[in-house]
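Hey, resending since the last one bounced:
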Amino acid sequence: MTVAFISDLHLTPDRPHSSEMFQAFGKSAPQLLSSLYILGDLFEYWIGDDGVTELGHGETESTIKSIADSGVKVFFLHGNRDFLVGDEFSKRTGCTLLPDPVVIEEDGLRILLTHGDSLCVEDIEHQEARKNMLSSKWKVAFLETPLRQRFETADRMRKGSELAKKTKPMEIMDVTQSAVEEMMRDHGVNIMIHGHTHKPAAHEFTLDGQLARRFVLGDWYEQKSIILLDQGKLTLRK
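The structure tokens again:
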């Protein structure tokens, strides 16, 4: 059976086609996969596990649950848009939450998984915001506010983020190679898979005298991509 990696679906009712693609994927997954890894930004944004109805993602949760109920192991690693996904979501869908970064062992390979935004170290503004929002203090304060207020705050933050992207140089929003190498070296691996940048590709480079590979997943609303691991071989499909 095959292991699949996906990322950056950015599901939202505003883009129904992406949700339809994921539902179709969910129907075929049980016949094809042994494990599914979702590497963050499954949702455009998440305001807490109690906000699934407000955000219109009930069907998405049902799709994940159907995949998990079929026997496929489903893992979820947080992205910068859905870092508030928590234990209740995990219970409802049957998925296992993973830390970022994390090393997995599948089909004889040790693979480092990360969403990828922590590797964009030249984007100082994003890194500062990331540090703030990942703090327990910020999370607790945000989740204690009324649901409607959280929805409005998240929508405002999302729009602000999209506006900021238009004024930033493209190169600072991509990963920094030295950060990639440092993370891989720290975890003792030569294979990394991540998303976030929406630039699907398979990169090869030399790390401490050895061949290293970095696979990047694309989004699902402009350039659907998936990485498959079968018989020890990783393949990026667009």
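Residues 2-237 form a domain with the Purple Acid Phosphatase; chain A, domain 2 fold (CATH 3.60.21.10).

Sorry for the duplicate.
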